[in-house]
């Protein structure tokens, strides 16, 4: 499925090393918190809160999302990218890594 | 309440012009979509999806949050900041605007 | 002249309030320092310095450029945008401000 | 030397594979162009050009610096990081890579 962010999703693909249950739980906890923060902003909009306050909370969510992203990036580099390098065909994964870093750092 | 993003929240403060119900509904629709996208990522984590795919979806959420933020920024500048400028004490609101722009653009 | 960053330059246009010589000097000092930092990186490339070190210095230049940008943004908002708001036709300048903020915060 | 951007410079360190003269020349050409753009902005300040026009040109320089940075990042990952991974001690270099990516993407 082509994603409008010009990098195609690869639904069949899995990490070179499956995530442990503990890894999954840590990610889910952080995502649950972010989900709660989004609902918090919905409430601020209903309460017609001051615009700057809502923007501050939006910034907090962006910061939290970035942290999740960098956790995924590091894990990906230490597993999928590293194993492809050890197998001698790292360039494709490195170029993919650079593309997603640029996408994610916009 | 001091927010760890070093700008204090002002829970009592309201926009100089209350948001219309239509404005609120548009913001809520976008926030609901973002909330859904977060849950989508939770599912990707459970399904142990490929790291790059999750990062692409995270980038999409960041882009959506940015759009919401810029909508709020423009509205804030056209209402609260403008009315303070017309009242002759715009500097405080402009400095606050610059601070939140830097915060939001990190 | 159409700039590839999709905002047209307006060479004939001047700030609503001319910059003082002191303002100009402060901006020029900072720009001179940045120019020196760029030459510093050219030297690092000639000396075949470690990539991460060059990237750290590039980040320092980006941070310095951002500060110059936010100084210009605040000045612009306090002069050109404010005077247009007082004259009752602020919306155009506010929309232009939002566009340049998005451009500048990429 | 401790850099205020909290990552220490490593003046003695060199890339695992020296840059070719061609690589160096390409980087120098781009850095020369950026240097010229900085001087262009100095002229715009002297000519008291419209703030938004200067900001547009600043954004162009930021974009050019980012491109140089991503070229360095990709080269670094394909050489220094890859060789450390093949040598079995990739984690340090990967963590350093993540840190400089976050620094560079601010």
Automatic annotation (TrEMBL), chains A, B, C, D:
Protein name, per record: Transcriptional regulator
GO molecular-function terms, A-Z: DNA binding; metal ion binding
Pfam family, one: Trns_repr_metal
Any single biological process term in GO: negative regulation of DNA-templated transcription
Region (Disordered): 1-25
